[in-house]
Design goal:
Strands 3-2-1-4-5-11-10 form a 7-stranded mixed beta sheet, with helices on both faces. A two-stranded antiparallel ribbon has the order 6-7. It has one domain: Rossmann fold (3-Layer(aba) Sandwich), CATH 3.40.50. The relative contact order is 0.17. It has 8 helices and 11 strands. Helices cover 29% and strands 28% of the residues. Helix 2 runs parallel beside helix 5. It has 265 residues and is of the alpha/beta class. Bound molecules: S-adenosylmethionine (SAM). S-adenosylmethionine binds next to helix 1 and helix 4.
């Protein structure tokens, strides 16, 4: 499989849907960002005011803006010039954000951002979009200060990967109607890249690279990182009417996985 060709095709696909993606997320992101991704980043990152933070695969800049508003000095990189153009013109609170075009699969390009100069590196909802992740892990190790942390938030590989099938059932249990919603999976360990929908209504789909947990983490360990924080987050159960299908219908199933990694001493 030619992974660099897939990566280049990915760039084209992301450029093509940059305007859609930016409009969908607006300044503060969608429900996923506001309820899951943003809070998980903050839980794992901790206070970041005045810190130098790198956001890898920043997209339209939702998380970069959130970090800047918390007082961080943010550098944000992506390989889509169209998404970067959208991010640059969005206003935000806090310090200015430096946006740069850098490919997250190129270790040298990332490392050139300043070895040992970042307090934290963040990558949200993008690891599953990258054909290779070892260069990102290795460069994070090089970019971080000795006590720095890498915070990754990604689609949970055990549940929200490889096109899960949502189901909803209604049954009569001893005279009471019971609704059940859940997720069905067929495979987990060995799944080839697949094009899948990133958001309903988007103009084109892009590639997803499923990695079971053992792969997601062993590549980080091989890069000299250790795991010291882990969060699994689902949408909260609520009494509000919810759709029967989708992530907000399954409060017991985490849609995202957050990991904090540090340099092994
Ligand atoms: C699902 S979006 C997430 C964007 C952002 N991190 C967020 O949470 O809103 C995935 C992003 O990964 C970027 N991306 C995919 N492959 C990349 C690569 N090889 N190098 C840099 N960015 C990449 C895409 O351009 C897109 O902005």
């Amino acid at each position: 499989m030619d992974l660099s060709r897939l990566n280049e095709e990915g760039r084209l696909l992301w450029n093509q849907k940059a305007a859609f993606w930016d409009a969908l997320h607006g300044d503060d992101g969608n429900q996923f960002h506001r309820t899951l991704v943003g809070p998980v980043v903050e839980t794992l990152l901790g206070p970041c005011s005045e810190e130098r933070v790198l956001d890898i695969a920043c997209g339209s800049g939702v998380i970069a803006r959130r970090l800047a508003s918390l007082g961080a000095r943010v550098t944000a990189v992506d390989f889509s010039e169209e998404l970067l153009a959208k991010a640059r013109v969005r206003e935000h609170a806090g310090k200015p954000i430096q946006y740069l075009m850098v490919d997250a699969t190129h270790e040298a390009g990332l490392a050139a951002l300043g070895e040992g100069s970042f307090d934290a590196v963040v990558c949200t909802m993008a690891l599953m979009d990258l054909p290779v992740i070892a260069p990102l892990y290795r460069s994070a190790r090089r970019l971080l200060k000795p006590a720095g942390r890498l915070v990754v938030v990604t689609a949970h590989p055990a549940f929200n990967s490889n096109n899960p099938v949502f189901f909803a059932e209604l049954s009569d249990e001893g005279g009471a109607l019971r609704r059940r919603s859940g997720v069905k999976l067929e495979s987990y360990l060995d799944v080839p890249p697949v094009k899948a929908v990133g958001a309903p209504g988007e103009p084109n789909s892009h590639y997803y690279y499923h990695r079971p947990l053992q792969e997601l983490l062993s590549e980080a360990f091989d890069a000299g990182l250790v795991l010291d924080g882990l969060v699994e987050r689902s949408f909260p159960a609520s009494t509000d009417a919810k759709p029967a299908l989708g992530w907000s219908a399954v409060p017991q199933i985490p849609a995202v996985l957050g990991m904090r990694l540090r340099t092994r001493s």
